[in-house]
Amino acid sequence: MNALLLPPPSATTARFLHGLNFSRPSLSTSSYKHSPLRSSVTSLSLSEDDVVTEEDGVSPYSHRRYDFTPLLQFLSNYSSDDNDSAYSDPTDSQLAESYRLVPASLWHYLLKSLASSPSLSTSISTTYALVDWLHKHNLCFSYELLYSILIHSLGHSEMLYEAFLLSQKQTLTPLTYNVLIGACARNDDLEKAVILMNKMRGEGYQSDFVNYSLIIQSLVRNNQIDSNLLEKLYEEMISDAIELDVQLLNDIVLGFTKSGDVDRAMQFLGMIQGYGLTPKTSTVVSIISELGSLGRAEEAEAVFEEIKEGGLRPRTRAYNAVLKAYVKNGDLRDAEWIVNEMEKNGVSPDEHTYSLLIDAYGNAGRWESARIVLKEMEANNVKPNSYVFSRIIVSYRDRGEWQRLFQVLKEMQKCGVKPDRQFYNVMIDTFGKYNCLDHALGILERMRNEVIEPDNVTWNTLIDCHCKSGDHNKAEELFDEMQQRGCLPCIATYNIMINSFGEQERWEGVRSLLRKMKTQNLQPNVITYTTLVDIYGQSGRFMDATECLEDMKASGLKPTSTIYNALINAYAQRGLSDDALNAFRMMRSDGLKPSNLALNALINAFCEDRRDVEAFAILRSMKENDLKPDVVTYTTLMKALIRVEKFDEVPGVYEEMIMSGCTPDRKARAKLRSALKYMRQRLKSQTL
């Protein structure tokens, strides 16, 4: 028998019912005229009309109704330990003969009904006994199929523990394996599903393609989808020669889209089309939406056109996805065009359409046009919500016109729209960005007065803006108040506070925060480790910084360019050019492509260490690898030359900067003036 690790029992498991309070009526197989589906688990009476088809080999004109109450009452009167007593009872044989003509499909339907009954009027143990009884009397062939049906039904009823218990009653076969894996995936117990798949593969069985679909759907549903994980699942499918049906391919496309790997998603979309299959409209729309979020408007439009060329009529969601791409890119004319196309083709804009269009007008500074859209919404009986107004505020915030927030608030009140939590969060963020901290705290008080409970976003925004303004004490007060009011800090909250404590060099406080995270079962993420490396590096605690980097790798997280940039920059600021160079080499060995930020930091390290030759070697390397030096690159090189008193070479670097298409900034001009000043002084001293 296969031994499986059981999941924790559900609340219903402890209640195995061993008796039914049914009176014992006489067995009836009366004639019954044809009617639509009519079955009642409470009466435990089923008709052949419910499930029987011509394939069952039963006359469609018999229309018999079977009352299963006597059988279930008989089985419930005996526990699983009293099977021998039950089978020696003469009633057992009588019942077997009475139900001899019941078709297999009706037994299957009965099992599904009993296992999925929300009232659980029939005990689970009785349902198990029914399967054993059917097998003993050969009333329904394929014992394996009976158990699989029951496991499947239990999984659908969120009774995974019971499904595992049942699976241990016999040796697992490919069918029961697949059904059990499917039950785990449907109940979002992916760890058990993967263990079962590996165990199944180890026994030489192949998993069902449906299970891969269910696992991917669960990952998407729980926002746990990851491009690398999906690639591994796909490699397993290819290795096991799994046939990819259209549903599985659609799930793969959606999985890659949700993981942010839209290019891979488009490859699988092409695979669907190459096989002559038709992708789901919702799948294609998800790709358009992701392309829109990335601002890849031309590609979004191309995929959108494919929908129309395929004979499908795009609906509002598809148009909105393309509209989002135009808004993201600031293409106001194209945004207006796509909305006109919607109306021309009889597709009604919704709240999201209007909010995106208002976003576009807001970004273009056309407030009057945005007001016209609001009036159009009212004319079309689409009431604007607080999200629409929050987008207007965001557009003003990003353009530095945050004072117009109060004008938007008045317009909102005029439309009879009440602010919600999200709207207030945007207001707090706007005030925070422009250091109006009293106003931000005033919004928090206003939320309380309106009985709107602040969430993690509210608290994180308030804490972060106080940290950035240097008011670390108030930030810590808010952090404590957040917890006192029953809002548990999330990983983002801890990252903000770790950075705050690091800036204050409160290292024991940093360690305390990391311990608190673990008590909440929150694991440090990439941002946590990047923050730790940065604060340790800026304080010269390089041993702690490198330990964090190693801990990150040990935890299975891959270091990013940002974390190496922070480390290289920290070494550079202290003139530790060799250490900075070693960090750069580690970055390359981890397969990361160096960015201008990392290379500029490395140039700065050589500059601080008065190693101008190595600094210019970095410049040559950038050119050879098609990396365009920027203003920071040339300014840092000018600083390096000044450090080693090669003033006469500075104008040449400045000229090269201009010739390369870079516009000198204030710092670059200041370096040039310094060099020219030193050159004049030197020339003057030589003439004297």
UniProtKB/TrEMBL annotation:
Keywords: Chloroplast, mRNA processing, Plastid, Repeat, Transit peptide, Translation regulation. It is found in: Plastid, Chloroplast. GO terms for cellular component: chloroplast stroma. Signal peptide: none annotated. One of its GO terms (biological process) is regulation of translation. GO terms for molecular function: mRNA binding. PPR repeats lie at residues 173-207, 245-279, 280-314, 315-349, 350-384, 385-419, 420-454, 455-489, 490-524, 525-559, 560-594, 595-629, 630-664. It comes from the Eukaryota. Belongs to the PPR family. P subfamily. This is Pentacotripeptide-repeat region of PRORP domain-containing protein.
